[in-house]
Amino acid sequence: MFTKDAIREQIKSQRLRLTKEEVKRASAACTARLLSLAEYQECQTILVYSAIQNEIDTTAIIKNALDNKKTVGLPVSYDDGKMEFYSVFDLSLLSPGRFGILEPPESILIEPVRDAMIFLPAVAYDKRKNRIGYGKGYYDRYMERYPDLYAIGLAYDFQVVDSFETEDYDKPADIIITDTQMIL
Questions:
Q1: How many CA within 13 A on the CB side of residue 176?
Q2: What superfamily in CATH does domain 4-107+127-183 come from?
Q3: Domain residues of the chain, as ranges?
Q4: Which of 18, 32, 109, 113 has a CA 20 to 30 Å removed from the CA of 11?
């Protein structure tokens, strides 16, 4: 079994080699699968990441949610390891924050309600829906605070590996949506 660090390096490298067309095609496929989910259609609040380094692009998801009058939140991370989600009404108001990731203005804090859905950025997943993130623990700590969130992983097929060791603090996704499948 490979270590998390070894998996992280190998998958990040593979993802960075994707062309813009490959990212666009896979992102569109993931978005179409997501929009067909009853859980997405019924939820009123989505907490979503802003894609970096050839992650599955979430822009179409954000636009769809805004068009459907859902509350949309993007994260702001802090030096103390804490992360909060703030409301987004207009994508043009986003600006680079920590780590160069687009963040919303810190104006309307979102306190997630029971029907909220969170999208987990990840380097890799395993077939049991465990996640390897970027190693900082922001999302694991956030999900510890809000355990009722419905967690969705968006990934390319090659990001899903057989298995890896997990820690007690690791929080799995409820579902993983890839460019060709859903892992329930």
A1: 26
A2: NagB/RpiA/CoA transferase-like (3.40.50.10420)
A3: 4-107+127-183
A4: 32
| 13-18 contact pairs (CB < 8 A, 24+) | 14/158, 15/53, 15/54, 15/55, 15/123, 15/156, 15/158, 15/159, 16/53, 16/54, 18/54, 18/156
In 50-167, at which residue ranges do the beta strands (DSSP E only) sit? 71-77, 83-87, 95-96, 102-103, 117-120, 124-126, 131-132, 150-155, 160-161
Tokens (6 digits) for 96? 């680079």
Indicate the pLDDT class of residue 99, thresholds 50, 70 and 90: confident
pLDDT of 57-91, one tens digit each? 999 999 999 999 999 999 999 989 899 999 999 98
